[in-house]
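note to self — DONT lose this again. spent like an hour looking for the file last time. sequence + predicted structure for the chain T wanted, 84 res
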Amino acid sequence: MAAVLTTLTPNTGPATTFSTVVITGSGFSNVGPLTVRFGTQATTFTIDSDTQITAISPTGTGTVDVTVKVELDGLSNALPFTYV
């Protein structure tokens, strides 16, 4: 089963510097390799628990979809992140 995203905290961030974003949802641990993306950009992250990931937002512009891809289970739903 694919990971499910419920919230991004915060859901906005700076366009020109990195910032920490907490992703909450389910299906994050003991599922094999994960990839966290802000739009098309993969980013660095830490799996805190089955329901929380702490990610670093890359630089960007506009609003992008944040997704979590589980190698064996597919792509999560998307949540919007807006660069300000």
